[in-house]
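Sequence in, structure out.
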Amino acid sequence: MSLLLKIPGLRIVARLHEYITRLAPLEEFDDYDAYWQERAVDEGSTRELDRFKVIAGLIQEQESVLDIGCGDASFQQYLARVKPGCKSLGLDASSEAVRVAQEHGCATKVIDTDLRLLEQVGCDWDVVTLMEVLEHIPDAESVMRQVIELRPRRIFVTIPNVGCLKHRFRLMFGGRFPITTIVYHMREHLRFWTVKDFEQWAETFGLEVCSVQGQFSFGDDMVKFAVKKFPAYFAPQVIYELRSRR
């Protein structure tokens, strides 16, 4: 069997079968401070994710970047290495995430949920990023309106794509809800979009979707080709580049 799994097509089928039949993650955590404490132990070192490379490649040197929901500031650390001329600030609702980020020397602060973003960070930002954030928030609409108030030239949003074919197969053949890049517990994600749904959603804020790119985490070359060429169907996570029409 191990020899057969060296064949790319069979590896893909085996991974798909494992995903379709996998039990939903239900490891309880108290709050997002506890969540980030656990992640700091589990992941340890700084991550370099495909979305970091894609977004950093679209950011110009010297641009100012506000990273909302920065977590452990892995993106800020990556950006500092590849675009050292960029000024960045990370925001997060978790004081534990901010503590971890500051240990890495990143400029970060805890979001005060009683104040609007404009009151906390001003509007001097070329780029705002929200990476794997909106799906965690019950009122994503309020957050997006506050981001637009900052008047950035561009907004980058990355979210899971519930329309990905592997999620459809899990529903159809496994009878189970998609595991949309959830780490510990299914309650992590509260909101879900397909690519078409997100494009419609963005339009309600007067935002233009300038590009849609799939995030490639791992797999064979044929998987990477499909994810990058047809993100709406094959990418479990998607990167949107947005600009205001107003």
